[in-house]
């Protein structure tokens, strides 16, 4: 097994161009589990460890640009958490302190598990994914990037280098159901993002379909019912009905973690609560 | 030499644990850390089907791979083709038929784990897939899936007036899912062949001598040609009672003439050891208006999976304790363990008592509701006392402070109101809960567990104590699996001999006779008894030596505690030690027990221990999520020998029982384990563990060495049922199944 440790993005992309079969290694928290279970047998590993730039983030006009190797622990940093509270809340639900110090947002997106905790929040935030190869850079909407369960639009010669998140001015909530009170894979999760400036409410579901599910019907239904000047919804029945509409968007399955019926039910409860906390 | 009349670190003290610091620092070598130069890596080929006929098995392509030293199948087993803890019904390797997913078919030894893996892939196996038997309740009527039949054992206990009934009758059906021992250290060991053809097997196990006997039988070798050494055990909880890789590694080493190490992968471990039996119950309780139990009827089926393991003993326990720690004159109990194509089940901490406790305690709560009686009062009213008769007719002769356990659990202060902190509420880090939507509930449950083996088993433990140069050495094959026997043994020697410096030597099967299994809450009593007995014999030998030296008659020399008393002097024992070392080996026996007769009557048990748990939970009823806030317990321990180690057993057992109540379950579908990983087999984390407050009831057990009862199992029996009762109290959901899944609460 060869392990490549490039110290610049250009070199990393050149390696990938030469050997598109190389396995990209970020924090390794998904990667090594797959190796241990024999689901992955890499001949060549391209480690991102020395690409310091990928661990940085900055604000660019109305966007936060997160390097692909930004960790969950970084997302919990108040400077970032204030800009994207929903992403910070989701980061807090991930794993244990060890996993949060090591696991990266780029790894979570590239694994593209239906249960990945970054996915629904990034979907509700209308985030974009930046992919680079030796021939150029392209930017995809999250919905274009995640094409199926554990499937993405990344080409083998590409590296996910950044995530671009439009800053939304308003409250955000991420709620996740698991059968344990910490360090647990989501059985169902809901992200709600309120944009006071754009007067929109955006919601997405995790673990309730092959990819993160945006609740467009619920979003457009609820927006006119918000008192945007007071920044609240007065009638609790609106929260309840929003929950029902979000749950209608779910496409859950039965598996060893839970049932489709419970997942739909949980989406309804979570979406209601998330909206009630926001508005 | 530091010698006092009463040495420091004796019984009842917080003696330092000899393996404590290395374990905390990470210096302790577990069985998976074993290494010798030139060793090979063994791996196992396993069945992908729950039930299939093996049509072809061709290992030649594997043997052709460079680096592969040995490939073995059933054809290479020189001795017994089957092994088993109680009845040898499990093939070393499947030959014609596979009966569960994960059943071993062949094993390879190669120079590298990766080579071994490739060798497994190269083995050609063709199967004719058969319909698996996966419903335990259909097993008895299904065509036999094993020559020994599908009913492993059926136990009937009938006693008292069959027509007895009461003013009130409650009836219920209950189900318990499959729990896993979930030890962190995988099945692992190292087999090293010697020049003379003998084998040293270093392995993590609960009973070295039993492993040795099974390995020797399968390899057709005399037992003294197999030397079993205990390697560092990373948790056991019953799952290391059965042989896993022991025979395979030894046979590979014999064939390859090289040391062979085997260490299961995590998903392999989930099919590589037995689990706690899933069970189904029907129960009917009859009681008078005042709550007096008049009759209890029980029907239960335990799914034993493909092989018997210890199912016959587990089902015996389930039958004997299905009424719980209560007095009742009339019983009709039928408990059956069956064979299916599901994963094999066997020993796990609590051993049959855990499953029955959920059913009998659910029934007691139903009964209390029906009577309009306080569930605590109902239990106190029927609680067993010394002198009562059990369903087997056995009279309870030892300590039975059941009511005291209940009162102690109830006497602890209740926890504060739900905290204003989302992490501490149901759903925890998922931030799902809203304070106003949380409901609190309280539940009580009480359990009974037998100590030691039962039903006429002639169980013994041997140990050697040596005193030389002021240092006492205990040689024992008692498997230290984390419980702390290494400390207790030292404390006992200090107590009896007054010698402070005591070394615990974990002895191989070549050095000492069997200590019996580290199970059934028995080692402190049995091996502790052997160590005490050997120490007393050493003390007696010292007295004899003193008499000889001083020209006294044996009668003129006596012992007062740890002081030798002669007509003219009082000498501390340790100072009276002669120059030549004294070494005494001895074997300890418990009082004999009897098998059950056809009506399930007989003095089948040595002793019993009791515990009660009160659980307080916060529940989010809409989502069905639970946060266990507090568990309090009263436990019947006889005597506290080591406060911290005791608390460790109590906290660990309580949380393990709670895990079964709210999250721990092996999900089996059509014979396949669907969650063989710690991603999906959920164990409680620190955020799930409640506050635990414990009271120990010290009523010395007459027959037990130092009056101390076994303490390892009682904590796990009633904590789970107490948690389920508390969730019922909070939500009103009937909850006839444990573990409780969120949907069971949220969707009814
Ligand atoms: C104990 C434990 C608990 C966990 N809990 C959670 C949880 O609660 N929620 C959750 O969502 N996840 C959880 N995970 C999964 C995992 O931690 C996350 O998905 C994490 O974000 C993965 O990031 P990583 O940097 O470790 O990725 P890696 O493991 O290094 O890589 C993951 C995948 O992404 C690819 N990859 C990584 N970075 C890039 C890149 N820049 N460009 C292209 N491809 C790339 C890799 O090739 C690999 O296929 C848990 C894992 C463990 C072991």
Briefly note the CATH topology name of the largest domain in chain A: Uridine Diphospho-n-acetylenolpyruvylglucosamine Reductase, domain 3
Task: Give the chain pair forming the largest contact, with residue counts.
Answer: A-B, 38 and 38 residues
Describe the largest sheet of chain B.
7 strands, mixed
For the biggest sheet of chain A, the summary is:
5 strands, antiparallel
Q: Strand percentage of chain B, roughly?
A: 25-35%
* Number of helices, where a helix is a run of at least 4 consecutive DSSP H or I residues of chain A: 12
Radius of gyration of chain B: 27 Å
Portion of residues in helices of chain B?
A: 10-25%
Q: Architecture of the largest domain in chain B, CATH level 2?
A: 2-Layer Sandwich
Compute the number of strand runs of chain B: 31
Structural class of chain A: alpha+beta
Walk me through the structure.
The complex is a heterodimer of chains A (279) and B (748). In chain A, a hairpin with a 2-residue loop joins strand 8 and strand 9. In chain A, the strands form four sheets. Chain A has a five-stranded antiparallel β-sheet with strand order 4-5-10-6-7. Chain A has a four-stranded antiparallel β-sheet with strand order 11-12-13-14, with helices on both faces. In chain A, strands 1-3-2 form a three-stranded parallel β-sheet, with helices on one face. In chain A, helix 11 packs antiparallel against helix 12 (260-278). Chain A folds into two domains: 2-166, Uridine Diphospho-n-acetylenolpyruvylglucosamine Reductase, domain 3; 172-278, 2-Layer Sandwich (Enolase-like, domain 1), CATH 3.30.390.50. The N and C termini of chain A lie far apart (53 Å). Chain A contains twelve helices and 14 strands. By secondary structure, chain A is of the alpha+beta class. In chain A, 35% of the residues lie in helices and 24% in strands. Residues 1-5 of chain B have low confidence and may be disordered. Chain B has 16 helices and 31 strands. Chain B has three domains: 20-28 and 460-589, Aldehyde Oxidoreductase, domain 4 (2-Layer Sandwich); 34-130 and 187-263, Alpha-Beta Complex (Aldehyde Oxidoreductase, domain 3), CATH 3.90.1170.50; 279-391 and 398-454 and 596-746, Aldehyde Oxidoreductase, domain 4 (2-Layer Sandwich), CATH 3.30.365.10. With 748 residues, chain B is of the alpha+beta class. The A-B interface holds A 33, 36-38, 89, 92-93, 96, 173-187, 189, 255-259, 261-262, 265-266, 269-270, 273, 276-277 and B 117, 265-267, 423, 426-432, 434, 622-625, 627, 662-663, 667, 669, 674-675, 677, 679-680, 682, 684-688, 741-743, 746-747. The structure holds flavin-adenine dinucleotide. The site of flavin-adenine dinucleotide (FAD) has 30 residues of chain A, from strand 2, helix 2, helix 6, helix 7 and strand 10.
């Amino acid at each position: 097994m060869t392990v490549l440790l490039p110290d610049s993005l250009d070199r990393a992309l050149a390696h990938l161009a030469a050997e598109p079969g190389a396995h990209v290694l970020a924090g390794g928290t998904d990667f090594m589990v797959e190796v241990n279970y024999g689901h992955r047998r890499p001949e060549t590993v391209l480690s991102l460890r020395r690409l310091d730039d990928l661990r940085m983030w900055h604000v660019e006009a109305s966007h936060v640009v997160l390097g692909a190797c930004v960790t969950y622990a970084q997302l919990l940093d108040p400077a970032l958490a204030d800009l994207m509270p929903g992403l910070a809340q989701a980061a807090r639900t991930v794993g244990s302190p060890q996993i949060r110090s090591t696991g990266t947002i780029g790894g979570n997106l590239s694994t593209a598990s239906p249960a990945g905790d970054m996915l629904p929040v990034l979907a509700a935030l209308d985030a974009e994914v930046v992919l680079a190869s030796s021939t150029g850079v392209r930017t995809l909407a999250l919905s274009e990037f995640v094409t199926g369960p554990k499937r993405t639009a990344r080409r083998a010669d590409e590296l996910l280098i950044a995530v671009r998140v439009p800053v939304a001015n308003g409250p955000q909530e991420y709620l996740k159901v698991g059968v344990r009170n910490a360090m647990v894979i989501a059985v169902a999760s809901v992200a709600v993002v309120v944009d006071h400036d754009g007067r929109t409410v955006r919601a997405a579901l995790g673990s309730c379909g092959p990819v993160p599910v945006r609740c467009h019907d619920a979003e457009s239904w609820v927006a006119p019912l918000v008192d945007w000047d007071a920044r609240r919804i007065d009638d609790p029945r609106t929260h309840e009905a929003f929950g029902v509409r979000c749950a209608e968007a779910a496409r859950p399955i039965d598996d060893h973690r839970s049932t489709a019926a419970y997942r739909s039910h949980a989406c309804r409860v979570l979406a209601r609560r998330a909206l009630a906390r926001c508005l | 030499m530091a010698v006092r009349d009463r040495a420091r670190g004796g019984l009842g003290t917080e003696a330092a644990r000899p393996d404590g610091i290395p374990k905390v620092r990470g210096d302790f070598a577990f069985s998976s850390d074993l290494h010798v130069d030139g060793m090979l890596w063994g791996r196992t080929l396993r069945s992908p089907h729950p039930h299939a006929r093996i049509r072809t098995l061709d290992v030649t392509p594997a043997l052709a791979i460079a680096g592969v030293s040995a490939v073995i199948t059933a054809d290479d087993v020189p001795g017994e083709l089957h092994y088993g803890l109680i009845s040898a019904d499990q093939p070393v390797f499947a030959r014609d038929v596979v009966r569960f997913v994960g059943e071993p078919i062949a094993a390879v030894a190669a120079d590298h784990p990766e080579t071994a893996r490739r060798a497994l892939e190269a083995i050609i196996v063709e199967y004719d897939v058969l319909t698996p038997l996966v419903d335990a309740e259909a097993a008895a009527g299904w065509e036999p899936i094993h020559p020994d039949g599908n009913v492993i054992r059926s136990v009937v206990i009938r006693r008292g007036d069959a027509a007895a009934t009461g003013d009130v009758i409650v009836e219920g059906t209950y189900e318990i899912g499959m729990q896993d021992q979930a030890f962190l250290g995988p099945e692992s060991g190292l087999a090293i062949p010697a020049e003379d053809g003998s084998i040293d097997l270093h392995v993590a196990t609960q009973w070295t001598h039993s492993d040795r006997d099974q390995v020797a039988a399968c390899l057709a070798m005399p037992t003294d040609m197999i030397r079993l050494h205990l390697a560092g055990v990373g948790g056991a909880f019953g799952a290391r009672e059965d042989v896993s890789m022991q025979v395979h590694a030894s046979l590979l080493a014999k064939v390859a003439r090289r040391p062979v190490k085997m260490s299961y992968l995590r998903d392999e471990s989930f099919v590589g050891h037995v689990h706690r039996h899933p069970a189904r119950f029907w129960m009917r309780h009859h009681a008078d208006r005042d709550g007096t139990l008049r009759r209890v009827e029980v029907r239960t089926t335990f799914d034993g999976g493909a092989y018997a393991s210890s199912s016959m003993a587990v089902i015996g326990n389930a039958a004997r304790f299905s009424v719980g720690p209560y007095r009742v004159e009339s019983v009709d109990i039928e408990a059956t363990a069956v064979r299916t194509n599901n994963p094999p089940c066997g020993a796990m901490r609590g051993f049959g008592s855990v499953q029955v406790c959920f059913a009998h305690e659910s029934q007691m709560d139903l009964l209390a509701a029906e009577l309009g009686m306080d569930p605590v009062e109902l239990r106190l009213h029927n609680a067993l006392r010394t002198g009562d008769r059990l369903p087997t007719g056995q009279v309870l002769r030892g300590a039975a402070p059941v009511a005291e356990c209940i009162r102690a659990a109830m006497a602890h202060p209740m926890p504060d109101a739900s905290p204003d902190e989302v992490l501490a509420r149901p759903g925890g880090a998922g931030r799902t809960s809203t304070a106003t939507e949380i409901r609190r509930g309280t539940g009580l449950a009480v359990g009974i567990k037998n100590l030691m083996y039962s039903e006429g088993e002639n169980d013994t433990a041997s140990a050697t104590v040596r005193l030389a140069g002021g240092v006492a050495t205990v040689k024992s094959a008692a498997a230290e699996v984390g419980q702390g026997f290494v400390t207790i043994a030292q404390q006992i020697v200090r107590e009896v001999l007054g010698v402070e410096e005591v070394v615990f030597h974990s002895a191989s099967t070549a050095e000492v006779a069997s200590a019996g299994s580290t199970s059934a809450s028995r080692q402190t009593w049995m091996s502790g008894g052997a160590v005490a007995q050997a120490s007393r014999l050493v003390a007696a030998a010292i007295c004899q030596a003193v008499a000889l030296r001083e020209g006294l008659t044996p009668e003129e020399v006596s012992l007062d505690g740890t002081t030798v008393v002669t007509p003219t002097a009082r000498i501390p024992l340790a100072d009276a030690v002669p120059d030549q070392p004294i070494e005494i080996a001895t074997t300890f026996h418990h009082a004999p027990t009897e098998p059950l007769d056809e009506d399930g009557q007989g003095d089948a048990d040595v002793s019993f221990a009791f515990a009660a748990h009160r659980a307080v939970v916060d529940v989010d009823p809409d989502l069905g999520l639970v946060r266990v806030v507090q568990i309090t317990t009263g436990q019947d321990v006889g005597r506290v020998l080591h406060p911290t180690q005791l608390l460790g057993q109590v906290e660990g057992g309580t949380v393990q029982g709670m895990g079964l109540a709210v999250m721990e379950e092996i999900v089996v579908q059509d014979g396949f384990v669907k969650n063989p990983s710690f991603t999906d087999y959920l164990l409680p984390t620190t955020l799930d563990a409640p506050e635990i407050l414990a009271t120990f009831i010290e009523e010395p057990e007459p027959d037990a060495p130092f009056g101390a009862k076994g303490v390892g199992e009682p904590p796990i029996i009633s904590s789970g049922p107490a948690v389920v009762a508390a969730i019922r109290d909070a939500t009103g959901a009937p909850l006839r199944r444990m573990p409780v899944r969120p949907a069971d609460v949220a969707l009814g």
